[in-house]
Amino acid sequence: MKMRVYLDNNSTTPIDPRVKEAIAPYLTDIFGNPSNLHSFGRECAEGIEKAREQVAAFLNAKPAEIFFTSGGTEANNWAIKGVAAALMLKKGRHIITSPIEHASVLGSANYLAEMGWQISYLPVDAYGIVDPEAVRKAITPQTVLVSVMLANNEIGTIEPVREIVRICHEHEVLVHTDAVSAAGKIEIDVQNLGVDLMTISGHKIHAPKGIGVLFIRSGTPIVPLIHGGHHQRGLRAGTENVIGIIGIGKACEILKEEWQQNVARIRQLRDRLEKGILARISDVRLNGHPEKRLPNTSHFSVAYVEGEALLMNLDLEGIAVASGSACSSGEPEPSPTVKAIGVPEIYRNSVVRFSLGEENTEAEIDYAVEVMERVVKRLREISPLKPGG
Ligand SMILES: *Cc1c(COP(=O)(O)O)cnc(C)c1O
């Protein structure tokens, strides 16, 4: 029997029914503009403030340090461009990041480079891990910010952000971390990590799309990215996305209670998937760090098949996964992450990422393994890439 199995939770997640329920009144009865002082506005503003508290509690931050944005992309843009603009005259024009960041971080760094900034890209090892000592070496008196993600969304590698923060703070350099794929999978306590800025996104944690959060530690120099009215302490203008905010608040409240037990289950399923694939398919490589890796993410390279073809053939059998290449002009290009970790040639264009979620079952995992074996076998039979083929 054909099943429909969603194994692409690092791309997006379904909305939790409890999140849907929390949002519902804001789609109908509670419609005021939260900036207005009448009761219609106030009841909406109260919902927003409750959500701010829910997010703050999950991150172990103060509510005043939580800012709602249009998503992880905006939060990352704001952290980088906002701190850069606040400090360029006082300190300099140098930013440090890694080559395996999300496009929103790499794009922001690239923009600053075009504006004359100096950008240092930290080396990563074969697992994608940044060496904190490389951060120490890259810091100059002009460095205003270091941005290194907490966990990579493709290969799942977890970065030593706490150690990076310790070194940066010795040199009075601020640290931002993109915790979008880490949220709900590993601890993201801003006090433990010590970060000055942190990004999360709603739709990766069972809240709606188009909502994100930037945690900004009190006292961090930053200017607005979006100018306008006095919303959100004058730092992020625009009438709030109330639906999204209520949703991400509820999602954070749920995760605070449940993430650890979710992860224990997901990790077992993930291990079952990896064992199955590695046992039943030859010439497969598991990318990312063996242990310092998100408990829901498996990033494989399957030699002698092409990633996009694998993705599409799995999709025909009802299985949704991601391939690691952006297909530009018909030629598949390995992602910056895959390039940076130095995946050997035969494994470079054949990547496939499985990212599990709370809803997955053992039966789904077993079906995915069975289909993978069948599809890879079929693709290899017709592959021009196979040895001697
Ligand atoms: C999805 C993602 C983002 C972008 O978040 P959006 O809310 O989709 O804009 C940023 N960083 C990482 C690591 C992501 O996986």
What does this structure look like?
α1 runs antiparallel to α8, α3 (72-87) packs parallel to α4 (103-114) and α9 crosses α12 (362-381). By secondary structure, the protein is α/β, with parallel strands linked by helices. Helix content is 41%, strand content 16%. The strands form four sheets. It has a seven-stranded mixed β-sheet, sandwiched between helices. A four-stranded antiparallel β-sheet has the order 9-10-15-12, covered by helices on one side. Residues 10, 71-73, 76, 102, 104, 149, 153, 178, 180-181, 201, 203-204, 212 line the site of pyridoxal-5'-phosphate (PLP).
Strand-helix topology:
Blueprint: E1 5-6, H1 17-27, H2 39-59, E2 66-69, H3 72-87, E3 94-97, H4 103-114, E4 118-121, H5 132-138, E5 143-147, H6 161-170, E6 174-178, H7 190-193, E7 197-201, E8 212-216, H8 242-280, E9 284-287, E10 297-302, H9 307-316, E11 319-320, E12 322-323, E13 325-328, E14 331-334, H10 336-340, H11 345-348, E15 351-355, H12 362-381
Parallel strand pairs: 1-11, 3-4, 3-5, 5-6, 6-7
Antiparallel strand pairs: 2-8, 7-8, 9-10, 10-15, 12-15, 13-14
The structure holds pyridoxal-5'-phosphate (PLP).
Sheet with most strands? 7 strands, mixed
User: Strand sequence of the main sheet, in spatial order?
Assistant: 2-8-7-6-5-3-4
β-strand percent reads 15-25%
- Overall mean pLDDT stands at 95
The tally of structural domains comes to 2
CATH superfamily of the largest domain: Type I PLP-dependent aspartate aminotransferase-like (Major domain)
**Gyration radius over CA:** 22 Å
Report the structural category: alpha/beta
**Low-pLDDT segments, ≥5 res:** none
Query: What is the CATH architecture assignment of the largest domain?
Result: 3-Layer(aba) Sandwich
CATH topology of the largest domain: Aspartate Aminotransferase, domain 2
DSSP summary, beta strand count: 15
Bound ligands, each once? pyridoxal-5'-phosphate
What is the number of helices?
12
Q: Helical percent range?
A: 40-55%
- What is the first-to-last residue Cα distance? 33 Å
Overall shape: it is globular
Helices and strands, in N-to-C order?
Answer: EHHEHEHEHEHEHEEHEEHEEEEHHEH
Q: CATH class of the largest domain, anyone?
A: Alpha Beta
